[in-house]
Here is the input.
Amino acid sequence: MRGGSIAVVGGSIAGCAAARAAARGGAERIAVFERTGARLRDRGVGIGLHSDRYEELRAAGYITHELPWVPLARRVWSVRHDEDPYGRSVVEQPFPFRAYNWGSLWQELRSRVPGRVDYRTDAEVTEVEPDADGVTLRLANGWQEHFDVVIGADGYRSVVREAMFPGTGAAYAGYIGWRGTSSDVADLPSDGNHACTVVFPGGHCMLYRIPDGLGGYRLNWVLYTRPPRIDGVDPDLRTPTSLPPGHLNSQLTEHLRALVTDNFPPYWAAKVLGTPADTTFIQPIYDVGVPHYASRRMALIGDAASVARPHIGGGSVKALQDATTLEAALRTHETWGEALEAYAAERGAIGAAMVALARRMGGAQVENTPDWSAMGRPEFEAWWQTQNEGPDRNSGFGGHALKGRT
Here is the structure.
């Protein structure tokens, strides 16, 4: 297809990738609507890309080798054991990942959005109204505009998804992720090129080094467990929400410190407990799935389409793969309907498979944890295999291979 107008709702990683796909796919007029005015580059949490998926995305033109990254070779699962500073190693797994800084990855993708794309900040879309010839967007400031196609890249609280499939929102998984970053990376084991997973009853914590965006490094960690029943956090969390940096009260902070002190090996406990409060926050975990990735003149990409719990390390990969598939569909089909249907047919099943696999992993690694202290390599490998069984097993750790690749 060539010509026509496309709006992208959401301007983060998925939105920038979608705008690039629309431009390379031949759209004449493209606008991105990003509701925040803050600099997205300041988000400093970690993102992992499987090395094979990186190569596919680099070849497709959606990521470059110049972007700072940290190589990760092994994933070490450890459990507290007596006073051993690092705990007892349960098992080491191959872990061919590249660790990135979210803000740096966004900045790279933003720089690759063509200059002719109208990227608007402080532009909150409140209504999405399809008609026979396209879609009208209405903004919080009263502005409205009509486009041939609208791409929803607006995350797990997507207004575009709500317009396509009313009531198909995010479902709370029943637990949360505590996240933080620290500059304390001087003495990391294996020179910081391994990811460590500390396990404990009712959850686990993954820690690994990432670039800081300034030429140095930071320690990135995320701890999954059920939320405390104390003031400051709703234990139900059915309404999608989060507690950003600087919003954790003293009770929440004390709960986290006690959990870490009681369950972590001393070395890793010190790393987490030394994390500055202004880089620590809570991220409730949700599942999102949709009946179809496209409807009429609307389509979904990234977390707006499906949210898989973070345990499979494939969220950003899926968003970028969605974009490459969308670009190919726009290039090779003659009508909007044909292009969006082809995109949805290829990506819908993959998204659903990733959601299902991530649910199994969340169940095994957080909701119904095993007796970690009794595990050795054989027990661990049997436990790990049960999570990867089923028709979606090819959507394993790091995401699904692009079509036509192994």
